[in-house]
């Protein structure tokens, strides 16, 4: 813990004997008196600062941290893309934001995976963490920290958190008997398991009813977290925060589960079983349970243990934890319970998404139906994959991954809609600059096609915002494409490419008007698509010569920018044909 001790300016024994006085500042009986004095002065100063100053914090978004027992697949890619789109949306709106991702490296699962290939766990983790980091980089994830649970500041934070739980009287030792699933890294009760016959071997085995994964009986001494004590507080919290988990039906599932009562949680494993993890402070015979270790990563990256006055500086409490549906219990129950025990602020929202399946079967390595995200990106291009995941990825339900569908969506939306629009407004017969200057007439507003287009030009930014607020990035993307589609319908009716040939004054006027409207759609779509398809959006905005300081959300307003399109080139092919299943 030496780094932590240095950071806080503590002597090692000063971590003992703390009692809580606020969510940030433990009152430690054994802290040096000068540290205590400084701490409380700073805390008082912070707590008397105006509430607006305290409220200012970056929006903090997190991905789950990925187990390094195996290589990433497109399920992991989806979580990364979702989180990244939310982070970029914040930035687009001019709100400071932080995004955290990383790897979950301790625990039985990783210990066994390393042992299986005969590689020391440290090296095994270094190798796989590098692969996940490479994926995050390749996907263009705009993360602010890539945390590894083997990072020293994280180990320190976990041990500090543990001590605080102990000081608050939430940890006790007792014998634990139960069924452990290494694959799920969790204990199950008798009611949560059942016997099945393995179709491959004909042998009977005990598996979790929920995940179907094998469990093994264990009986051991370990530490427990008195989670049951927190049941009433948790229920109060859920009731006061109906948006805590989205979609709502998953919130209902959690609240129903907690309403039935909570058991205490086993939070350590004997070293005889699990060595690969963070040692329990002052008891080297026990290793911290991997989920407690993992969840605390969100706090570590927020600067925990907090310096007084800096509690919110790195974003805590998290605004959005993006997670898959299989890890809701850990984030929706254990995590708030742990935080409540220490009176720490709770995250604002969990977005629990569905899973990607392949031929309607959950992707799993053993079934051999896992899609390698690096190959998918190489084959279709990064922005195409980001687009597909954002458009088709299931939040409420599972989604079936299909190469054919990627190719179809590419053709329909990217080539025929978006690419074609950029091509159509860039036709060499037009002068976009002149259209922007001269096309602002209301003379044509009565035609139904134009009315529909004008309405969407005015409303789309607000509609997209509403979808983001409702945590539907697929809805947001669809709104942008509705604007594009209506623009094509309008273009097909006006046919500026024919009018331009006639070259009468009236025709020139209507061409200018039409091209101005279409250029506005293209410019606004370019701005709004940035969170989804950063490279292609950049290509569009560069092509339209939109000034770099006019690419934020506040510029996605119909008619606001009059300066773009200077020296624009004609004819662009943004979305070349891609390989489909038939080739
Ligand atoms: N290490 C834990 C998370 C700890 S967070 C404090 C873990 N890791 S994981 O690697 O197994 O999964 C990481 C994320 O990927 C989870 O949100 C999980 O739901 C998600 N997915 C795993 N398979 C998936 C699909 N097939 N489809 C979509 N997401 C999937 O859980």
UniProtKB/TrEMBL annotation:
Keywords: Aminoacyl-tRNA synthetase, ATP-binding, Ligase, Nucleotide-binding, Protein biosynthesis
Domain of life: Eukaryota
Pfam family membership, one: Anticodon_3
Cellular compartments per GO CC: mitochondrion
Sequence ranges assigned to domain Methionyl-tRNA synthetase anticodon-binding in this UniProt record: 447-549
Reactions this protein catalyses: tRNA(Met) + L-methionine + ATP = L-methionyl-tRNA(Met) + AMP + diphosphate
Keyword Aminoacyl-tRNA synthetase: yes
Swiss-Prot/TrEMBL GO biological process terms: methionyl-tRNA aminoacylation
Domain Methionyl/Leucyl tRNA synthetase residue range list: 60-425
GO molecular function: ATP binding; methionine-tRNA ligase activity
Annotated EC: 6.1.1.10
Family to which the UniProt record says this protein belongs: Belongs to the class-I aminoacyl-tRNA synthetase family.
Name the UniProt record assigns to this protein: Probable methionine--tRNA ligase, mitochondrial
């Amino acid at each position: 813990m030496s780094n932590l001790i240095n950071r806080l300016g503590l002597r090692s024994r000063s971590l003992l004997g703390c009692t809580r006085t606020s969510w940030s500042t433990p009152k430690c009986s054994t802290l040096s008196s000068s540290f205590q004095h400084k701490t409380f002065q700073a805390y008082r100063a912070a707590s008397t600062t105006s509430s607006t100053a305290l409220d200012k914090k970056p929006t903090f978004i997190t991905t789950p941290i990925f187990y390094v027992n195996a290589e990433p697949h497109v399920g992991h890619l989806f979580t990364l893309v979702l989180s990244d789109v939310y982070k970029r949306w914040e930035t687009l709106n001019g709100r400071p934001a932080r995004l955290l991702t990383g790897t979950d490296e301790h625990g039985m699962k990783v210990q066994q995976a390393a042992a299986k290939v005969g590689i020391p766990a440290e090296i095994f983790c270094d190798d796989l963490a590098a692969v996940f980091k490479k994926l995050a980089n390749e996907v263009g994830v705009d993360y602010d920290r890539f945390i590894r649970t083997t990072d020293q500041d994280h180990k320190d934070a976990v041990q500090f958190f543990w001590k605080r739980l102990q000081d608050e009287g939430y940890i006790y030792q007792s014998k634990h008997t139960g069924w452990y699933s290494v694959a799920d890294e969790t204990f199950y009760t008798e009611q949560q398991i059942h016997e099945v016959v393995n179709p491959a071997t004909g042998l009977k085995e005990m598996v979790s009813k929920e995940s179907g994964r094998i469990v093994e009986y264990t009986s051991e001494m370990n530490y427990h977290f008195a989670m049951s004590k927190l049941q009433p507080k948790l229920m109060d919290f859920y009731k006061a925060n109906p948006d805590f988990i989205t979609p709502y039906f998953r919130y209902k599932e959690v609240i129903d589960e907690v309403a039935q009562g909570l058991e205490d949680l086993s939070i350590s494993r004997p070293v005889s079983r699990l060595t690969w993890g963070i040692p329990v402070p002052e008891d080297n015979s026990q290793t911290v349970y991997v989920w407690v270790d993992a969840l605390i990563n969100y706090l570590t990256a927020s600067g925990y243990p907090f310096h007084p006055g800096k509690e919110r500086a790195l974003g805590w409490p998290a605004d959005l934890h993006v997670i898959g549906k299989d890890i809701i219990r850990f984030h929706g129950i254990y995590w708030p319970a742990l935080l409540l025990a220490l009176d720490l602020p709770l995250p604002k929202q969990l977005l629990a998404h569905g899973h990607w399946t392949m031929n309607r079967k959950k992707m799993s390595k053993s079934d051999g139906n896992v899609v390698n995200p690096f190959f998918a990106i190489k084959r279709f291009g990064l922005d195409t994959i980001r687009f597909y995941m954002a458009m088709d990825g299931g939040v409420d339900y599972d989604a079936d991954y299909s190469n054919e569908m990627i190719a179809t969506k590419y053709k329909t939306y990217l080539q025929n809609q978006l690419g074609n629009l950029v091509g159509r407004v860039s036709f060499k017969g037009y002068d976009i600059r002149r259209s922007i200057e001269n096309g602002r007439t209301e003379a044509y507003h009565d035609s139904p096609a134009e009315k529909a287009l004008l309405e969407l030009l005015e409303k789309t930014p607000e509609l997209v915002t509403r979808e983001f607020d409702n945590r539907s990035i697929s809805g947001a993307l669809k709104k942008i494409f509705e604007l594009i589609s209506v623009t094509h319908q309008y273009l097909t009716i006006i046919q500026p490419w024919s009018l331009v040939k006639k070259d009468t004054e009236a025709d020139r006027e209507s061409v200018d008007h039409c091209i101005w409207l279409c250029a506005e759609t293209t410019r606004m779509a370019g701005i709004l698509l940035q969170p989804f398809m950063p490279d292609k959006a950049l290509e569009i905005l560069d092509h339209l010569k939109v000034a770099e300081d006019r690419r934020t959300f506040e510029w996605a307003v119909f008619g606001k920018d009059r300066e773009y399109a200077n020296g624009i080139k004609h004819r662009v092919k943004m979305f070349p044909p891609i390989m489909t299943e038939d080739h």
